[in-house]
Amino acid sequence: MSRGFSLLAAAVITVSLIMTSCGSDQLNEANGSNAEGNVYKDVKLTLRHTQIKESSQVRLRILQDVVAQTESEYPGLKIEMEGIDEVVNRDQKLKAEMAAGNPPEIFEVFGGSDLKLYVKAGRMMELTPIIELLGLKDKFASLDEFTVDGKIYGLPFGGYSEGFFYNKEIFAKLGLAVPATWEELLKTADTIRDNGIVPFGLAAKDAWVNGMLWNTIAERYVGIDAFYKLLTGETKWTDPGFIQSFEAYAELVNRDYFTKGALGLPYAEQGGQLLNGEAAMVFTGTWDANRFVGSEAGGLDGKIGFFNFPSVPGGLGDQTSINASYSNGFGFSSKLSDDKKAMVIAFIHNFYTEKVQKRTLLEDKVLPSMRLSDLSGVDPLMSEVQRAMANATSSWRAFDSIVQPTVGADLGVGLQELIGKVKTPHEVAEHIQEKQEKANLASREK
């Protein structure tokens, strides 16, 4: 059925896509099929996604549209979509599949430390020649988190930034301004709390959620380079700056700023605390922005804003930086047959377009991973996000894409222990440092 889909054949196909209208007839002809495209009639691909939450339905529809388009262009192609929880996918299922050597053919994957492990194991298909020949390489805002030793192994489908989404009505009613310093943030939160409103909405049952706010606090105190140096032992979790970050997080807990019973609440409920007026602020990523506009926002549509985390006293990090990155994307199995590789190229060609990226920005409020020539129609909330990013002096990626996955998971648990007041900041730091040393040793032994 296949002619042997070598890299040279891939080049022929992708060049054909670029030089023509990129339709199925040209792809079929380049791969030696007949006019009816029957060579592909038995091709089946599996696609793993995590767009199963109510807040992700727009994202899912966009993906479904691309899948339907690709299937219609190549008769007989069937892309079977499987949706599962993002935490289950990242921390359990995909890891087990990678260890066994049988990942899905197309799958969502985090860049950074996750990706590097899978590349080292030989599980990821290299995409460098494909995106170069499709003319895509220079279209992305950043491919850093999907690049290993100069080669590209995944493509981000969107970007994000993290910060405070806040209820402008509450701020106006209480006479509050957006805080620019840690002290101002505490005073703002005190006023909100004293008026019977939760300052910071939090749903802490899923351990990773707690890392978002802490991550930015820590960056303010130690700077992002300190996270990378944890891998070499040049810095330690027990260093003064990291201790300060845990103490600052514990201070927010001790001042009763977070939602009561947060440890029992799933992440899906966090945004609702802002929308129902229970909380004045939530610290989260822009992937949640689609909840804060339109019909789901209800009476708060147009009344929710965004601001970057303020500076901290004596911090060594960039005090006006922002956590913004392009770490979520699609990867592809290195074990694809020749014909499946051809269809993966067709999927990439259809998914990574300005049209799809513009839909993602306008309909789903996800920052585009590709540079757009037309930014018309962007709503006010996303404009605030983009202004915050433009005003930031630097950006950096989340800690869990830098440190080993086991360390990142333990940190989330440690923050839960701070929220539950069962460990002190020093105890949490000491435990994570032990995990870091074990992870570093394991990395050196491989």
TrEMBL record:
Keyword Signal: yes
Keywords: Signal
Secretion signal span: 1-24
The organism's place on the tree of life at top rank: Bacteria
Name of the protein in question: Raffinose/stachyose/melibiose transport system substrate-binding protein
